[in-house]
Write a structure and sequence with these properties.
alpha/beta; Cobalt-precorrin-4 Transmethylase, domain 1; Methyltransferase, Cobalt-precorrin-4 Transmethylase, Domain 2; 2 domains; five-stranded parallel β-sheet; 10 strands
């Protein structure tokens, strides 16, 4: 039959498109990928609004046991829901390819993602360089990839969007991200992310958002409230971008 891969937006149950909602309504099974991002409402609100039972699909199911989803799509209409847009994570591309291998019809229904919704800040989207993510450091895992990406983008005059870690029991805040990056700076001493670097802290983009512009030391003390958070390190600014950023001070 059909596998519908549906982006459901960033905020709440009403962010789904009409086309996406129609597909969900006629699906026999509805899965929600729940590890690469999170909505700002509980899954119960989605179930009530969609009128469907939703099965939560964790990383293990999507990446290692995808046949649980795909086998049902051989003879049924199946909806696979993704927070943001469908292809915001490479794991969804893998699901798409595996469905094609099984000769399952795939219908893609797109939606807004953090990669375009971040335009609300006022920085030109085509001047963003490579997007990176910042994980929580662990005893034997303290990556510095985000620092390297920021450095590379800075050298090219490009903006950097840093997506912050999501765990089952906690979500990284702007404050935590600044602390981690400052610790890497203290180790590397390359003047990529100092206390005086100007950054943008963002929370709940696509919903009840909060945006603040200032130095790292200023924003480290700011309360950004509920998740999800991200930060931007601006590159070379056009005068219009400078003017917009001033409104977020």
């Amino acid at each position: 039959m059909t596998l519908y891969m549906i982006g459901i937006g960033l905020n709440d149950e009403k962010d789904i498109t009409l086309k996406g909602l129609e597909a969900v309504k006629k699906a026999s099974y509805v899965f929600l990928e729940n590890y690469t991002s999170k909505l700002q409402v509980p899954v119960e609100k989605l179930q009530s609004f969609y009128g469907k039972k939703i099965v939560l699909a964790d990383r293990n199911m999507v990446e290692k046991k995808a046949d649980i989803i795909l086998d049902k799509a051989v003879e049924n209409e199946v909806a696979f829901l993704v927070v943001g847009d469908v292809f915001g994570a490479t794991t969804h591309t893998d699901l798409f390819l595996r469905a094609k291998e099984k000769k399952i019809k795939v219908n893609i229904i797109n939606n807004a993602s953090i990669l375009n919704s971040i335009g609300i800040v006022g920085l030109e989207l085509y001047k963003f360089g490579k997007t990176t993510s910042l994980p929580y450091p662990e005893d034997n895992f303290k990556p510095e990839t985000a620092y390297d990406v920021i450095k590379s983008n800075q050298e090219a005059g490009l903006h950097t969007l840093v997506l912050l870690d999501i765990k089952p029991d906690r979500n990284m805040t702007v404050n935590e991200a600044i602390k981690i990056l400052l610790e890497i700076e203290h180790k590397r001493k390359e003047k990529v992310f100092t206390k005086d670097v100007k950054i943008v802290g963002c929370a709940r983009i696509g919903g009840d958002y909060k945006i603040k512009y200032g130095t790292a030391s200023e924003l480290e003390k700011e309360d950004f409230g509920e998740p999800l958070h991200c930060i931007i390190i601006p590159g070379k600014l056009h005068f219009v971008e400078e003017e917009v950023l001033e409104t977020w001070k």
